[in-house]
Design a protein that fits this description.
The protein has 238 residues and is mainly beta. It has three helices and 16 strands. Strands 1-8-7-3-5 form a five-stranded mixed sheet, with no helix packed on it. A three-stranded antiparallel sheet has the order 2-6-4, with no helix packed on it.
Length: 238
């Protein structure tokens, strides 16, 4: 599947074939999703173009179908809502020890909540959880991977594993304030409670189903890897 933000763009696809082929976009993509070229022979480079969405609720999907004789291959295209994040560049930041890295507060995505979720290693998902006057926001790794540029706009970035390792070297964990563990983590398929360990995603993939995370728990900082479908917070770094 191809997940696209509201900004749209051009997305290359390499097609390997030893015969003639044809490509077409389903009716759901009329007016906002196109593929070029629409036919060819042998190995080819295709481009799927998705227009910018100005809809208030712009989640939409279409299917690109490539046919060669009796064989077909499909690419599911989904354009997803990406509201403007609120992050600590405008609220609170931290630096630690001799490190030159600046860390942000946990990112908040207004409207990042839906009625149903399925734990997924591939489909971007996010969710909020409210208890009393507090609201926390959680994202699976595919969401972080697909929306990194929107979550942490330049000069910010989603921290790599090496950034978390640098934090471990530079920071005295006892200097981390309680804000670092607020909200913990959640199971996105059913957010009925949150856990008190502060796990936060890195941008670094471990395998097709696992990614690295940094954590702060019981006065300790660390890095390990975990299934991509879990719901963790995100902090930007620069």
């Amino acid at each position: 599947a191809l997940y696209v933000t509201t900004a749209g763009g051009d997305y290359p696809v390499v097609l390997a074939s030893n015969a003639s082929w044809a490509a077409a976009v389903s009716a759901e993509g009329d007016g906002w999703c196109t593929v070029t070229p629409t036919s060819g022979t042998g190995r080819s480079a295709l481009t799927i173009t998705v227009a910018e969405s100005t809809l208030e609720a712009p989640d939409r999907s279409a299917t690109v179908t490539i046919t060669s004789g009796t064989l077909t291959q499909t690419v599911d295209v989904r354009q997803m809502f990406m509201p403007t994040p609120t992050y600590a560049a405008s609220t609170q930041t931290w630096t630690f020890g001799a490190s030159t890295l600046v860390w942000s507060d946990a990112i908040q995505i207004p409207g990042c909540n839906k009625d149903t979720y399925a734990n997924s290693d591939t489909e971007p998902q996010c969710r909020s959880y409210t208890s009393g006057t507090n609201t926390w926001y959680y994202y699976n790794w595919p969401y972080v991977n697909q929306h990194a540029a929107q979550l942490c706009p330049t000069p910010w970035r989603v921290p790599a594993t090496s950034d978390w390792e640098a934090l471990i070297v530079a920071a005295d964990p006892s200097t981390l304030t309680y804000e670092w563990e607020l909200g913990g983590y959640a199971n996105l398929s059913s957010v009925t409670s949150i856990y008190n360990v502060a796990y936060m995603w890195s941008s670094t993939e471990y395998s097709s189903t696992y990614a690295y995370r940094g954590y702060y728990y019981a006065g300790s900082l660390g890095v390990d890897h975990t299934p991509k479908f879990y719901g963790f917070q995100v902090r930007c770094v620069q």
